Here is the input.
Amino acid sequence: MSGKIQAIRGMHDILPEDTPRWQHLEALTRSLLDTYGYQEIRLPIVEKTELFQRSIGELTDIVAKEMYSFEDRNGDSLTLRPEGTAGCVRAGLEHGLFHNQVRKLWYMGPMFRHERPQKGRQRQFHQIGVEAFGLPGPDIDAEMILMCARLWQRLGLANLRLEINSLGTPESRAAYRKVLVDYFSAHQDQLDKDSLTRLENNPLRILDSKNPDMRPLIDDAPEFSGYIDNESVEHFQSLCEYLDRQQLNYVINSRLVRGLDYYGRTVFEWITDDLGAQGTVCAGGRYDGLVEHFAGQPTPAIGFAMGLERLIGLMESSTNRLPDSDPHAYLIIAGDEFRAAGLALAESLREQLPWLRLVTHLGGGSLKNQFKKADKSGARLALVLGADEAASQEVSIKSLRDQAEQERIGQNSLAVHLAARLQAV
RNA sequence: GUGACUGUAGCUCAGUAGGUAGAGCCCCGGAUUGUGAUUCCGGUCGUCGUGGGUUCGAGUCCCAUCAGUCACCCCA
Here is the structure.
């Protein structure tokens, strides 16, 4: 019996105080995706380890050291999903969803990465992922980005910066990678420790180094613009034109690489400076080769994921109000002998007013105590049923939020009265 | 994985040069035996994160461990 049981490190409970904000975020996103023609897909949280190894990339941090992997009873290696795209592609292939057709899908749920927790970074976190399959052109790239912008607007989030870049085709990127490796290898003595390991794993990431001492070396490095293929350039230019036409602000960040191996061509990130070091709130890009990589037909694809904890963090400082979730009314029962009548009255009201948020006081107690609970619940009105009311088939109604006079209403006209009174406010 | 700081009632925190814990909020009761939110009075609440060690004695010092926070790294 020593020690209390605690949640796993980096895995947090989302408490009743916070769930209204989550529900609001989820509901707004759902309805927006619906209006853009996306369909929900629900996916397992556990997949074969191999799925992630083969899609995300063996050398990425996610696969190399952050996966929650374990052995199934039959010896298979399974993994708690660290991201959603791989599972979505797997499911789509398994059920033939991509066969000669366009698919626009979304999913929502927890992801798991064994990282050191810090602000905006947990071991279990939540994403909404959005994927579009079968569309090769830059129009879908633009629409996805514009859809994000619309979501931020509806959520009341400002101060989000859009950064975009093109990674080109795998071939052009490989050519550039080789040039970069040659360049940095020739100056190995000037590389810091992190950059030396990146030279092995992901040389493009060296360009992203935050170490000011590396600045001169990086500034002199060869630019990708000399190696990117023409088609990718055209694709990117069209995307920029579409965004310009909608007057959406963005910055082209030629250093923007994405962490996962499957990205190519368009990549984008929505970034905030209000959340500390983990400022990326939403990010994605094209992954035209991934479906084919899993033995499917060549299928162009693009997708992005939003980090819900990070968005919630921004919503907390937003002035946008959440939908009201306090009870409309609180039923006070004065006298234990009226409990049955109270329950009956409440059920009758629910029958007549399905939208009514009504809390019935359970467990008895003094009238004073029940009024305290009514006030604390946030309810607008207190309904009182006691000996006097029962005798005349009435209910007393007292406003808890203003000075309106308390009144007595016949029980059979109560629903009509409440409907008028609550909807007038 | 590396580093810094932190861990005392449900919550926010105090705790002086080491001498076996305190405040506010919350909750409950009363001042009005059918009326809340204000006011006044009273009350409950802790193995001081956990495990060792030093000491006559540790919330206070040391070590370990767990967790939180922030940064590096990485990423949503």
Observations:
- The two ends of chain A are 54 Å apart (CA to CA).
- Residues 7 and 319 of chain A are 32 Å apart (CA to CA).
